[in-house]
Amino acid sequence: MNLIPNLVRQIRIPIGKQQYIHSNVKNTQLRKRASVAVILRLEPKYNDNSIRFNCKCGAKGNGHKESCLNTFIEDISGKNKYLPLEILYLKRADNGEVCFPGGKIEIGETDQEAAERETLEEVAIDLNSPDFALLGRMDDKFTFDKIGVHSFVYLQLSKNSPRIKLSVDELVDYGWVNMEYILYSNPKIPLTNHQLEYLNPSSPLLNETKTNENSVQYTSVSNISTSRRLKKNMFLRFVCNNIYVPYLILPIVSRYQFKLWGLTLDITSDLLKKMIGYSPFPQQRNINNSIIFFFYKYPKTFTISTIVGLLILFKLLV
Question: Where, by residue number, does the polypeptide cross the bilayer (predicted)?
Fold first, then answer.
């Protein structure tokens, strides 16, 4: 079975329902919001060049109707319902983080428009063209600094991917990753038979021996984060030394290592759950001490009185 219909049903949104950021919004509020684009494509070898996307709904941009998409999916898959997907990841120049194309929302544009504008600026992909379909919107996320991040999912409909041209000031490299690599990355959380129905039973990844290089690993936030706040705040650094997060090294051929973790991993995890109800990544709160995790999740509780109270409590207990 293929992954796309489930995804469309789970995250499909009415086109044109995004709200604008009006000119009277304060700059401080704008800095608290950003949008990213999660871009999917069929693995090139499965994308039969003889079948072209023929839009029957008359969409001028990426707002194709679901019936139009379903017809295309049926045509291109034929009797083989397995359609492997690849997902695009980028690597930032300033902090080395793995990310999706995207950035801050500007005055006078919608969340969706911000994601599409930033993608055009960063990788020269025009997501508003009929060669792409907006599948829907994921649940909003919040960064450690409480910036709201809106995620939009797009499917490439054309046979050939547009030529990617990186913004050299912002990015150093990119790569497409087969989503099966991610789905099979944690043998400790096995897939059920129902979930396996969505995947390729002959995939070499299914029975591949998992090593540290191709499976989910864990490390402390202090060890993986490049946050400046972390380096300046001693108590925050102490907390983050004891908070462990999952990460996965992506199989992208590059002079740089692509380490998927944090917000980008969370969005990827949610995407997989929408597709087949499964994610190989455990919840952070399930692998950490609940008190320590509370301070990590709510850093504004780092007050002198809180620290003194914890020290007194610690002394009483020991």
Answer: 234-253, 298-317
Q: What confidence score (pLDDT) does residue 298 get?
A: 64
Q: Does residue 238 sit within a domain?
A: no
- In which band, very low, low, confident or very high, does the pLDDT at 77 lie, cut at 50, 70 and 90? low
User: How many domains, the chain?
Assistant: 1
The pLDDT score that the predictor gives to residue 70 is: 76
Length of the chain: 318
pTM: 0.82
Residue-number span of the structural domain to which 20 is assigned: 4-208+255-286
Amino acid at residue number 84: P
Answer yes or no: are the C-beta atoms of 89 and 260 closer than 8 Å. Answer: yes
- What distance in Å separates the CA atoms of residue 193 and residue 278, rounded to the nearest whole number? 12
Give the CATH number of the domain where residue 88 resides. 3.90.79.10
Residue 31 belongs to a domain:
yes
Distance of CA 245 to the CA centre of its chain: 16
Look up tokens 């789970």; give the residue. Answer: 10
Cα–Cα distance between 9 and 190 in angstroms, integer? Answer: 25
